[in-house]
Amino acid sequence: MLENINNSLFSFINATPDSAQWMIDLAIFIAKDAIGIVPLLAVVLWLWGPRDQVGTQRQLIIKMAIALVVSLAVSWAMGHLFPHDRPFVDHVGYNFLHHAADDSFPSDHGTVIFTVALAFLFWHRIWSGAVLMVLAVTIAWSRVYLGVHWPLDMVGGLLVSMIGCLSAQMIWQKYGASLYRSLQTCYRICFALPIRKGWVRD
């Protein structure tokens, strides 16, 4: 049943040789490069921001990092427990993006971007999380469109990201305060000069 739905959705989304080249080029950019917003957001939110909000921003980054570690660990375990070939390995549909023929479920790209989007929804602002969720869905679409993932790989990434965020909240409640203080201390030592110059926030 699920495999039939998976195949039907893939056939509906997957590009073909008749698809517009600009659409394929745009999908390749989204699939490969849009994920770069994750480290960029982390750096910007840690180093800059309103003085009365930077502490909250840094706590968000720490929670997000914990969620990502848990999510990717669960993703790795699921990939080994429930191996699933990529569409092009099964000679299904069309492939427009070079990719190793490793396990496809759940999607690592989907896991990362859905985890970040949920982190912002839960611990930042609804609007910022909604914007990132739109980006997450777009990345998920692009990788199915280009033929390197099945639709259910992306659903798996979303479910794993939920586990990651829930785990991060539980870990934060127990160890968050001490972890935040330790990382703040390390940051102030390592970035003493930029902080003193006023280039970044204390």
From TrEMBL:
Entry superkingdom: Bacteria
Catalytic activity, EC: 3.6.1.27
Single GO MF descriptor: undecaprenyl-diphosphatase activity
UniProt keywords, alphabetically: Hydrolase, Membrane, Transmembrane, Transmembrane helix
SMART domains: acidPPc
Protein name: undecaprenyl-diphosphate phosphatase
Cleavable signal peptide: none
Gene: ybjG
Catalysed transformations (reactions): di-trans,octa-cis-undecaprenyl diphosphate + H2O = di-trans,octa-cis-undecaprenyl phosphate + phosphate + H(+)
InterPro entries tied to this protein: PAP2/HPO, PAP2/HPO_sf, UPP_Pase
Keyword Protein transport among record annotations: no
Domain Phosphatidic acid phosphatase type 2/haloperoxidase: 61-169
Residue ranges crossing the lipid bilayer per the database entry: 26-48, 60-78, 130-148, 154-172
